[in-house]
Amino acid sequence: xxxxxxxxxxxxxxxxxxxxxxxxxxxxxxxxxxxxxxxxxxxxxxxxxxxxxxxxxxxxxxxxxxxxxxxxxxxxxxxxxxxxxxxxxxxxxxxxxxxxxxxxxxxxxxxxxxxxxxxxxxxxxxxxxxxxxxxxxxxxxxxxxxxxxxxxxxxxxxxxxxxxxxxxxxxxxxxxxxxxxxxxxxxxxxxxxxxxxxxxxxxxxxxxxxxxxxxxxxxxxxxxxxxxxxxxxxxxxxxxxxxxxxxxxxxxxxxxxxxxxxxxxxxxxxxxxxxxxxxxxxxxxxxxxxxxxxx
Amino acid sequence: xxxxxxxxxxxxxxxxxxxxxxxxxxxxxxxxxxxxxxxxxxxxxxxxxxxxxxxxxxxxxxxxxxxxxxxxxxxxxxxxxxxxxxxxxxxxxxxxxxxxxxxxxxxxxxxxxxxxxxxxxxxxxxxxxxxxxxxxxxxxxxxxxxxxxxxxxxxxxxxxxxxxxxxxxxxxxxxxxxxxxxxxxxxxxxxxxxxxxxxxxxxxxxxxxxxxxxxxxxxxxxxxxxxxxxxxxxxxxxxxxxxxxxxxxxxxxxxxxxxxxxxxxxx
Lengths: 295, 267
Prior knowledge:
The structure holds two protein chains of two kinds.
Chain A: E1 2-12, E2 20-31, E3 35-39, H1 46-53, E4 61-66, E5 69-70, H2 78-84, E6 85-88, H3 101-111, H4 116-129, H5 146-158, E7 164-168, H6 176-193, E8 196-200, H7 204-210, E9 213-218, E10 221-226, H8 228-232, H9 235-240, H10 247-257, H11 269-283
Parallel strand pairs in A: 3-8, 3-9, 6-7, 7-8
Antiparallel strand pairs in A: 1-2, 1-4, 4-5, 9-10
Chain B: H1 16-19, H2 22-38, H3 42-59, H4 63-87, E1 92-96, E2 99-102, H5 103-129, H6 132-142, H7 153-183, H8 193-199, H9 201-224, H10 243-265
Antiparallel strand pairs in B: 1-2
Helix pairs in contact in B: 2-5, 2-6, 2-10, 3-5, 4-5, 6-7, 7-9
């Protein structure tokens, strides 16, 4: 079970004055069960890239293999592919249309051919999994808050039981608390359901905290494809692309420069915290002896 | 998918026609349309054809683009021609049941077809050489006298420019929502007519909501910048006539004079 992209090129409006090469010769292999992050600045081609993964757009050239089968072959069932590779668009709350939350989430499963009862069961399961309260199931999706709408929309894709879940900036426009909650629930899904997650994000902190593999897209090409830790060691190159490393990486580099023996490539606050304490202990720093009283 | 559709078909080029004042072009189109209805003989149509061909040449717009506009009226054209051919009383040439093909019918149908085609070419030449913004500016200035009759000219032209501005935005939005629903297994292609209409609900509801939300946001943003209607509003690019516009008006007057003479003399 994997998605494989071979020499994918995509051009918008070919042959006109508005021609844009969104993707250039992309090669990518996405095996099962990974938690992958995709970063890139606005217009780098990352949205175009993820729309290729469930055959929403056809590449100008190159092949996409799902489980070894070419998805753009004449007879290939792309609808069944789309129910296995779930894609949650940016601002997914804009796609809600039903009169109540439960019916909206049922839309996907029912398109798969489930009966209303079966669909409702899947919908309820999905809604509870994204942390949506049962008492709100019969509310109109339009009277919910932004974060709740987002949850409903994610559940709408999740209810189709995809094997791969792609989320395009699921936290855009949310407050920090809502953001952490949604990301925690996504991470939980990865653990509980064992599905592959592809998370497109602008926040380096988020990707550093959750993903195990990080793909950096720049000008339609893959600039880096490695663990977050290894990718963020290239923080100067990332900056040249209009991106950055997590803030903690900068702090660690600064500490290292000042002479503290820390690991400059720590990517999360927890990791860095432990490492700083260790380094201070090794250096026998007075800071660890109870602070100001001794001063 | 939908990104490939181009509406408000302005063709950017650098020609005298592009640089003319939109009011001149509007007036020119009006005069051309009048002339097409004034001419009713072969020499007359020849004059109109030469005039139109010269304009197309000057405009630097590829001929292909100009004829694209005709595709849309093709069906209407055929229907009008058939009606004219068979339902005009006169000298019968050919008969099929109750349908009579008459000599007068054919000549009327040909004239009608020429008029319709010239009408479409003439007006699409204007939209191809004028940006939508210029067009509404031109309309606003051109219709200003109607203000005296309490016609809200400024408001109407403002509505027009907003509507035109929203077309590409809504197209993009449609594309996005469509993709999102296809990702959830929606099907916009298969099924009979009734099913197809039903399948549009997941697309249309979010689209309308988004259009209302955008309209609301825009209204708020305009109010926040203290926008209020027409009176004493100045423009960023005020329209003013130049020498080429005066020359064009003279040419247009001459052309109209020819058309009227032809009609009066009966050539």
